[in-house]
């Protein structure tokens, strides 16, 4: 239990990283702070959803640009 508390203190200093947050959540769980563990897991899940939406939007814009570029090239050839 003491090792988890020590790991938790160290990890708090670099909590911005997703994998570190997961380690912190596991530490919280191990020392009986289930609510804190749940909060961090929820934050990680929400960030993954947000990142997924951003990636999807980026891919849509990239595809639109490629389509526009192809159309422009075809128009130049005509």
From TrEMBL:
Name of the protein described by the UniProt record: 6907_t:CDS:1
Superkingdom of the organism of origin: Eukaryota
